[in-house]
Structures are given as C-alpha cells and as structure tokens.
Amino acid sequence: MSKPKVQPQQVHPLSGLLDILSPQALDFGARQITFGDQLARVLVVTNYPPRVGPAWLARAAAIPGVVCSVHVTPTDPTELLLSINKAIGSTRPGWN
To answer: Is residue 61 a contact partner of residue 68, using CB atoms and an 8 Å limit?
Structure first.
C-alpha cells in the first residue's frame, strides 16, 4: 500500500514581513486596546472650548509615548460668516 502524497503548502512571499508589521493579537477591552504585548488607549476630545490660549494642546501632546492627532471638519464658508457676524453682534450690542 502506498502513502498518499502530501502537497506542499504555498507560502506567500511577504508572510514574514506581514507578521512583523501586523500585530499577532488584537484585543479590544473596555478601556484599552492590546496589540500583542503592547497596550494602547484612545482618548477623544470633542467640543473644544470656544477660546483657547497658545499651545493649549501641547501639554497633552508632549507626554512621552503620546501620539496626538487633530481632525478638523471643514465648515461651509457662508455658515462661518453668519456665525462670525452673530458672535460680533453679541459682543457689541450697542453697535447697529
């Protein structure tokens, strides 16, 4: 009786590189994400204060190991002008 032939598995040529670049395990917890043996947290700041001083985000962005990304949603120019005019009108009530 002859043994069945075992077909060799085809290995993708970039599989070693993909193993290095992509995490072995990705686990989403309630307060953190685990990438293999590293932990990460995502914090989102919404509704920025109406007025901020210079470098107001620098303290948080300067923490070692922190990567800071800012996403700005474009505003319709007409809507922006109306909002600015309204803000100027509310600060100068005596001007007509």
So the answer is: yes
Instruction: Give the CB-side neighbour count of residue 12, counting CA atoms within 13 A.
Output: 6
Largest CA distance in the chain: 104
Q: Which amino acid is at 54?
A: P
Owner of token pair 């307060």: 31
- The encoded tokens of residue 90 equal 């509310």
Given its phi and psi angles, is residue 55 left (phi above 0), alpha (psi -120 to 50 degrees) or beta?
left
Instruction: Please say if the pLDDT value at position 11 is more than 70.
Output: no
- Mean confidence (pLDDT) of the chain: 76
What tens digit of pLDDT does each residue of 12-38 get?
A: 565 666 666 665 678 888 888 887 777
